[in-house]
Request: fold
Amino acid sequence: MAEVASVCVFLGSSTGSNPANAEATVALAEELAARDLTVVYGGGAVGLMGLLADTVLAAGGRVLGIIPTNLFSREVAHTGLTQLIETNGMHERKALMAEHSDAFIALPGGLGTLEELAEVATWRQIGIHDKPLGLVDVAGYYSGLLTWMDRVVDDGLLSTQNRGMVHADADPIRVLDMVMADDQSAAPKWDG
Reply:
């Protein structure tokens, strides 16, 4: 199994209305810093994204932000990171986030978070990478998505093995533990 040294975190650029989302973000950020794991994320200074970066940095951790120029120019880029990479667009951003990461974890977020998670899950399914991924299901935030994934398996459109590539739990530390223990040598194979 490859060693995990960096974790990409997908999460909202807004704080949202549920304080449990911020609590889970802080808990994951502190644990990532405590385990000396580099955090890779979308480079924002606002919302849960900014909270993640600020918490990791305050705990002495390292944060790599990757942000498209059009978002940087709107002054939402976090300029106090360990490293900030500016890209020409979203496709380049996502490719670099994947390249610089050994694992992926999604906290609550909006459509962008869902899209990023779906893309890295699809990439693992078709063999582009064998990196583990997890969902922090804060207060049932992702329960609808997890139920849908189970339905896809029941309908024969996704193998049980591929369904198992997405680790989920309400506790961010347990999700991190599952991701760190993921056996990438048993990576799911393309369903066809």
In short: The chain has a mean pLDDT of 93. The beta strands are 6-10, 38-41, 63-68, 83-87, 103-106, 133-136, 166-169. Residues 19-34 form the longest helix (16 residues). Helices lie at 19-34, 47-58, 69-72, 90-99, 111-125, 143-154, 160-163, 172-181.
